[in-house]
Design goal:
Length: about 210
């Protein structure tokens, strides 16, 4: 079964391939199929944006997965102009930041907040199957409880292409994600496993994947 992802990011394709855990599924990026048109992303939430993308790319494939994320610093009010929200990669002048530009920008923002700040991602997902669109998103309060992390102003020397802010991210004890040993990574994974299981169930159901 071929599934189109609403992204050009091969790392995200690998992530969803691992998430779905099926060798009989082929995850294709927009670049793989030669799609260079992008829809407007003017929704109010990550889920709304994901659904808009899924609907748009649904004209090119029978099954589509789209995802959008918002980044929120819990030390700032939600309506603070410094909140990245849905525009994690957008610079002040409107251009889309590169990975290194993002690291520099957010390191500076966190420095202005004292050198470390608690943050969380709010992720929205959507599936388009045979023209019908379905959305899924965890609630912000739930994310606060289960997926909060520290963002630090000093970047780690390692990089994770496609996920540049991993170089600034740490667990709540201040240990860089890049430095966590197997036990530390397992503890982080366990906190997120229940949410991941709910996402997998949504994707299997709406994509029509038979277990």
């Amino acid at each position: 079964m071929d599934i189109l992802l609403g992204t050009t990011n091969r790392q995200k394709a690998a992530y969803f391939q691992q998430l779905l855990g099926r060798d009989d599924l082929r995850l294709l990026t927009l670049r793989d199929v030669g799609i260079d048109k992008i829809p407007d992303e003017d929704g109010a939430t990550p889920m709304e944006n994901a659904m808009r993308k899924a609907k748009w790319y649904g004209q090119f494939a029978d099954r589509v997965i789209s995802e959008d994320s918002g980044l929120y610093f819990l030390d700032l009010p939600l309506d603070d102009s410094r909140q990245p929200g849905l525009f994690i990669r957008r610079a002040a002048d409107g251009h889309e930041m590169t990975d290194e530009e993002m690291i520099e920008h957010y390191a500076g923002l966190v420095q202005s907040l004292g050198g470390r700040s608690v943050a969380c991602y709010l992720d929205g997902y959507a599936v388009c199957r045979d023209g019908k669109v379905y959305g899924y998103m965890e609630q912000l309060e739930q994310q606060r409880r289960t997926a909060s992390f520290l963002m630090l102003s000093k970047p780690h020397h390692d990089r994770h292409p496609g996920w540049p802010l991993d170089s600034l991210s740490a667990d709540l004890d201040g240990r860089y994600w890049m430095d966590l040993n197997e036990d530390g990574r397992m503890a982080e994974m366990e906190l997120r496993q229940a949410a991941k299981d709910r996402l997998i169930a949504f994707l299997y159901d709406k994509l029509g994947i038979v277990e």
